[in-house]
Structure prediction request, 256 residues.
Amino acid sequence: GKEEWRFDPAPHRGGRGFRGRNRGVVYWEDASGSNGRIFLFVKDRVFALQPRSGEIIRSFGENGSIDLRQNLPVDPDKASIEVTTPGIVYKNVLVVGSRVPEGNQSTPGDIRGYDALTGEFKWIFHTVPQPGEFGHETWQWEEGTTYGGANPWGGFSLDEQRGWVFCATGCAAGDFIYGGSRKGQNLFANCVLALDAATGKRLWHFQIVHHDLLDKDLPCPPVLLTVKHGDRKIDAVAQGTKHGLLFVFDRVTGSD
Prediction:
């Protein structure tokens, strides 16, 4: 029970402390079993630490950390990000979600992939679709409004054999507010999502609530399981909801 080391992120965040919550850390090492590191998520930063000493790994990201306000379709100085649940690693890709503000003029809850060794930004999946992307037409856009939310704050599940990552997203912002500024079904809010973990490409989605107004986030990551249906065994995805309902999908096709 003796303390071996302690890491204080404040000196690496301009002296700013942080009293927010985080549900854990992520461990990664490369295929040879070397370059091991612990990923620690503090507010809008991802730190890489030496597992045995707790020392920050300066070669990761920018001087030891990733600034998650970067690489979003909004001004970094206006982005508000907080990671409350650890990301997940597939091979050498660290997949990260976030918590974002729930009022109007929020930050997009986009999902991003980073190189686990270098911290290099690799891909982004826009949970608030950009022009030309699938789902953009499910929003009615108002000039001067920054749309956000639709963030997977509950964490991720990984099908390591297929290389697929699964998550569940929350309400589009604003939340508990008149939603007339974001008319439409608001993909990819309130969705179960299956993504290619290496590229961020959408494989399938299922939206459980269209145009959510009442904070009906999907509050937990999907559970991966195998179910018996008749005489067949089917790889499946089960998603719990705030409604007290359990949705079960075919893991490959997304059909219910």
About this structure: The chain has a mean pLDDT of 95. The chain is about 0% helix and 30% strand.
